[in-house]
Records
---
Amino acid sequence: MENTTAMTSLRALCIAAGLLVLAHPLAFAQKWEVGAGGGGSFYNAKTISSPQGSVDASFKPGFAASGWFGQIGDRTGGELRYTFFKNDMELKGPGGAFSMSGRAQAIHYDVLIYTNSRQAKTRGFFLVGGGMKQFSGTGEDLAFQPTGHIAVLTRTSQWKPLLTTGAGVRMALSKNTHLRAEVRGYFTQAPNEVITPVSTGEFKGWFFDIVPMISLTYVWE
């Protein structure tokens, strides 16, 4: 059921992004761009509490890679983006620590608001958007885990709604090549099927992933 819901949400996101591109008020006076970049991926940690005790649930520091297709207007723009994340998962508590390799992927549409006109060679911007993010445990799913009386890491996948925000700056290296430096925030509810509380354990709240990123883009009219 969850996979069906996730795929429906992804299709709706793609359709909505396409409509936003077509309906953009600057659709006939804009530049287009395609780009790719990478950087770090740094999550906050959460606590899973139960009558048996508590453990810290976290994603270890890792990396992110992203590619997108978008439009650049005078003061606004938009981009449909795919981002891949590689972060191992860890549970740490009184019984010890247990880690499992993990990854995530996201598809999202972001609206960019520029601080100056597109004639400038250097432009600051803010962004906000949303989409869906899939968390996946990819390591060995052991029957015994040191924190297994409170929570376990699982070899499974789970989709979660995603909010994005951030800020950055872009610099024109040439007529068609731009350099972008930005810091992005990816916000989701805790993936409680990938990191699973046991019995009466409780795992909720927001995970945020801070992603500093450097990118190169190709721009045309």
Note: The radius of gyration is 20 Å.
---
Amino acid sequence: MDVINTSGRRKTAVARIYMSQGNGKITINGRELNNYFKTNVLVYKVLQPLELTNNQDKFDIKVNLEGGGITGQAEALRLAISKALVEINNEYRPVLKQKGLLTRDPRMVERKKPGRPKARKRFQFSKR
């Protein structure tokens, strides 16, 4: 197997991954997975596609993460790993699709409108 190169996005976070045969080592921006994502929930989100397809210790993943917050980055990484797994073996697709791991979450921050303090908030109305 060669190196699989895919990307995942969530809000403004972008994850570019390089997946190759290995023993389950995940390196994010030169740091270990548990060192980068401190909470167990975020680590679980990242490892979810690997656990659903029983590939926890089969692939080494090198990740470049940029933009967004840590939750957006974790979900962008989850999408990238899911896409790479489907590229490796198309039989993983129904399992990942059922859990919603192949769908990019399109929600973004709404832009600020001119003449308003935020996107939808208005200044306080004064009758007199």
Note: The helical segments are 33-36, 40-52, 70-88, 93-98.
---
Amino acid sequence: MTKLDPEICLKIKEARRAAKLSQSVVANEVGCKQSALSMFEQGDGTKLNEDVINKLAQRFGISLTETAAARTAAAPVVAAVAEAVRVRGFCPNAHCPSNKPYEVDGRTLVLPDRLMADPVGGKFCALCGEILEKRCPNCGASVHDGAICSFCGDAYVAIG
């Protein structure tokens, strides 16, 4: 058997618990030690041989290939969701090339370009190396696209 998906170990554990069976009872049924079954249920697929794993899967009606195939099919969706939720930081350095100054009613503001400053969701600005801010420096609210925090009204980047 190739590398076993840890999710299968968890499914077997959940099925055993749902059936209200102890590890000792199940271990005796499939021909392994209780301690090996315990480690297996914690996600270590190397603790049981292929024959025992097949017996466990058959005992609880779990497909050994279905979980891996489902994960592979869902991988692009999971990656897209992770990208959408990632909070990109902005550079607090007013002189950084990622920050674009502009004027509104005689007041100079700085519009942070979070994608330019933080293309990979890191800790430091990709252009100047400054530590990125991921929350409003004044009130701690989550940042959004724009120059001013919608909660407290302060500018994200101070000019000075």
Note: The radius of gyration is 26 Å.
---
Amino acid sequence: MAFGNKNEQEAMSEINVTPLVDVMLVLLVVFIVTAPLLTQSVGVNLPKTVAAAPAPQSPVTQVSVDIAGDIYLDKQKMTPETLGQNLAERHTQNPDLTVQFEVDEKVPYGKAAEVLAIAQHAGITKVSLQTRP
């Protein structure tokens, strides 16, 4: 350190920032490594809804799944294969088609996801999920 001035030299007035840069780089590496670990898995409890969205203005087709897992298209019972065919036909007739899904709360999530996947494969892009307050 340059406290004394024996050689008639000026006192050192610059700060050595190398240790500061080293510490900041180490902290940056720590944050880069730990950030993906914090967002890998999150437990979610899905809430029940209170308010409903306004009804869509375009033509609507209703797909229902009852507690037994039976699938209905506009109140007609269908198999998954015929549901896919009917949705594809309706989508070709009207590309602006909106499908409202009404799934019983006791239906396993896998069955609901299967019905949504059938609609996706039929080309349906506008989806509405019905809930009860």
Note: Residues 41-47 have pLDDT under 50 and may be disordered.
